[in-house]
Amino acid sequence: MKLVLYKGPGDALLPGLLVERGVVPIGTYLPAGLAGQAAMVWLIDHLDQVRAALDLAAERDEAMPHAQVRLGPPLPQPRKILNAIGNYWEHAQRDPKPLNMFLKNPDAVIGPGDTIHLPANTAPSSFMHEAELAVVIKGPAKSVARADWRSAVFGYTCIIDVTARGEGRRTWAPGSSMSWIGKSFDTFAPIGPCIVTADEIENPNDLHVQFWNDGQLRHNYNTDDMEHTVPEIVEFASGVMTLNSGDILSCGTNHEGLGFLQDGEQVEICIHGIGRMSLQVVDPLKREWERGVYMGQDSTHHEAVKRYRPNTILKPSSV
Hints:
Elements: E1 2-7, E2 13-19, E3 22-25, H1 36-60, E4 71-72, E5 81-84, E6 101-104, E7 109-110, E8 115-117, E9 124-128, E10 131-137, E11 153-160, E12 163-166, E13 189-197, E14 208-213, E15 216-222, H2 230-240, E16 248-250, E17 266-271, E18 275-282
Parallel strand pairs: 5-16, 7-13, 8-18
Antiparallel strand pairs: 1-2, 1-4, 1-13, 2-3, 5-6, 9-12, 10-11, 10-16, 11-13, 14-15, 14-17, 17-18
């Protein structure tokens, strides 16, 4: 089942089902007046109670054609976004890095068709895209054992961890050390297009992730390359703090294929089995960096997209 929030009258975000023929409104199956984050959290907590009715709705209720629907982020106001740092082998022979995570600003969330705004109040070495699998939590979940990880997972979605590097990653205080603040600028957490319920994904560590920038394939990897798998991430994060329904765990990225984001570009993320969405990039300062796959730090290799990859290669849908 694919759950979405779509824009209704007054830009209210209303709950729906994403099906092949369009979007099926499901607000009548929820308590009256629920919309936005509250509607999706209610579905996370009560899906078992309405699942049979929603399955019938997906088959029988009228659907709005895709072209007539504007989707919003499926979780527009999550309480927490926790991101794994790195977390991919990147096909290298080495010891695994310790699992670690950081908190990303939940107010940075945007959705399909929205615009990533590069900030004008910093002088970064670059802005970059990191296409990632996101785990949607069903809580409360605290100290979940690795063997019980499924009890805390409601479903999955796509996230782009937009990143400011260089000065954009610092606190701007004299003598300050590196921080993760450059992950949290407004609009730096695109999420969507939907939440796929966990029963639809047999193994989250066998998913094909792709990302295009103006039609150029950048990220193109499988989540089986994670150093620390989804069960480990759930165990780690829930051991630090209580995870609540609608919280998001972002699983890190394979840095092979990392590249710059610049003014006027159109980007698109796709995780097979979940969905795809595109966004625009705007920079008021019109800064420029070398186009193409990044050749510098973060374990990235210029030839990465030509090496081992999953067999299924899609084309960008809208560029």
